[in-house]
Write a structure and sequence with these properties.
Helix content: under 10%
Order of helices and strands: EEEEEEEEEE
Strand order of the largest sheet: 2-10-9-4-5-6
Low-confidence stretches: none
Shape: globular
Mean pLDDT: 96
Distance between the termini: 40 Å
Structural class: mainly beta
Largest sheet: 6 strands, mixed
Number of helices: 0
Radius of gyration: 13 Å
């Protein structure tokens, strides 16, 4: 069992930046994919970004491409999501999730989420 703890959310204005962190309680193996999802008010949870732990290849939803950057620190078992030029439509609870494929998360692989609110 690897627990994930997200942090870094907050209330910001449009155009501002935030960096989310997701720290794992144990080792993340090279076969894993770490994903970021978000769920806005009244919306379904949607894929935001992912990174292959082994190799570091990254993936982004079209809505965040060019504004968000996913990265990892293998020594710290931590994945980050740098969010720049935030927009009100980025308002959501952001979750990290550990899985075996892009956009897929193990049943017990979710963190508790961190709230991001972007005011216009």
């Amino acid at each position: 069992q690897v627990d994930l703890i997200e942090s870094g959310g907050g209330l910001v204005q449009a155009g501002d930046s935030l960096r989310l962190s997701c720290a794992a309680s144990g080792r993340i193996y090279s076969s894993a994919v770490m994903n970021w999802f978000r769920q806005g008010p009244g919306k379904e949870r949607e894929f935001v970004s992912a990174i292959r732990w082994g190799g570091g290849r990254t993936y982004y939803a079209d809505s965040v491409k060019g504004r968000f950057t996913i990265s990892k620190d293998s020594a710290k078992n931590t994945v980050y999501l740098q969010m720049n030029n935030l927009k009100p439509e980025d308002t959501a609870v952001y979750y990290c999730g550990r899985g075996a494929n892009i956009g897929e998360v193990f049943k017990d692989g979710w963190g508790q989420g961190t709230q991001v609110t972007v005011s216009s």
